Amino acid sequence: MAMISTMKEQVYNTILKRIISLQYLPGQKISEKDLCEELQIGRTPIREAILQLREVGLIVAVPQSGTYVSKINLQKAKDARFMRESVETKVIEEAVEKLSDYDFMILRQIIERQKLEVKTTHNDMRFFEQDENFHHYFYQASGREQVWLWLQMVNMQLNRFRVLRLRSKSLSWDSLVKEHEQILEAVKEKQPAVAVKLLSSHLHRMLDEEPTLRHDYADYFE
Q1: 16-39: burial string, b at 16+ Cβ within 10 Å, e else
Q2: What is the reported pLDDT for 2?
Q3: Can you tell me the mean pLDDT for 31-36?
């Protein structure tokens, strides 16, 4: 039983990553048979993983048709953004008092890696991972790692939206990097009010950019 459970978690994480990264597109059909053959495992852990993904709203089962990746639920994405802003503004206030010179060096390195992606490969998932690393680091340095983990449980629809935003040719990446630099500078200069305002504006991007994404990728949304 423990082995099946471990295999289920591996399958769950594999499919989850593919959904978040848009390797599996919203509305795409998922074949248990193909997954069995690709991953070289039996159907039980695959079915259990798919059931778990259904429970978090990333997979839907259509009777007499099959299993599909759910389309992006904008209301859930907006609710997750609201929750994240409510929490992260408090985290950034704490970071103003807690971050060391070493922390600022790490955060600057993350920004430089984002800049490199903008200038070279333009790999959306590597850029997204560095974006996550930037925000995550404030939670880590402020002793709020568990809060970050809790947020990940509700961020799935939001993260799909964010990755889709990076795919859009209508929206640039440079503005995201610039905002990260401004947030970091405000924290470094110990200006909590400025940092909170900048962060709130940064996280509000989703609301401003929603019409563009709905236009460019209408079929990906519920």
Answers
A1: beebbebebebeeebeeeebbeee
A2: 46
A3: 89
